[in-house]
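Notebook entry, structure prediction.
Reason for the run: the old model in the group folder had no record of what sequence produced it. Starting over properly, with the input documented here first.
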Amino acid sequence: MLLFPAIALVLGTAVLAAVHHAEVVAHRVGEPMGSLLLAVAVTVIEVGLIVALMVAGGTETASLARDTVFAAVMITCNGILGLSLLVGAVRYRLAVFNAEGTGAALATVATLAVVCLVLPTFTTARPGPQFSPAQLAFAAIASLSLYAAFVSTQTGRHRDFFLPVTKDGVVINDADGDDDHADPPSGRAAVSSLALLLTALIAVVGLAKVLSPAIDDAVAGFGLPHSFVGVIIALLVLLPESLAATNAARRNRIQISLNLALGSAMASIGLTIPAIAIASIWLPGPLSLGLGANQIVLLAITVTVATLTAVPGRATRLQGLVHLILLGAFLLLAAHP
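New structure, fully documented this time:
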């Protein structure tokens, strides 16, 4: 009985270690590469966890990828984003960010979500909320193409769109931040932190997999639907990014928080769906990707509200609270559909 609390404690330690080493690497490579690195690292591990659980669970896990990816989108676009805006607005009266970069990221997330999670509900080539092989191949290629194009935009010519800004809209470069007094870590220290970051992320997912039987039992014991397992997986995997985004918001680096939130949502779809599409060749049973009616409504209102939040380039605590309420609605409907 004491084994699972001990594993949970080690899991929390691994999460804190991942956040620390991610911040060290981010300080070395600068923004937005630091946020991008953490988002990709977490998503790659998330894909490994989903595939492992689908292989072990057989046909009962046909919708696990959809449940986990949709939960990740809701948690990042409402939970991490809303908490970051709320913390920034409470601490500094107004949360200021770069509207160009945030809008571009949000448009990419919305397109990926519709193509990969909404369209399967309405296609007729296969029974149920499934893609045909040709449709799944298109969704995978489109996801990778959009993600690659966004990364090129974020790290290339339009890199300034994804850097923090002052209240007057002036971009804050890496060397200009008032919280960056310390010199960047050496290359050797950054490489060590990168290795430790990957180790910590692997530990997070590995420990979560060890806890998965207890999670399944708890979900069943509380009378929750099996799809809620995907929500718990997403919550565990996104813990490092949640803490990192909150820390950035406390330092008035709202744009970094939004880079983490929307970048994680984008990577969760843009990398997970192609990987699952390839894995579906040998995975047993069907692959259900289409969302239900209440999930589509939640996605639509989330995109609408996030667009209204992003357009002005600044937000009050009200916008943060609105997003957190949407997260609460998602969690409630996931537990009691």
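Summary: Residues 150 and 242 are 22 Å apart (CA to CA).
The old model has been moved to the deprecated folder.
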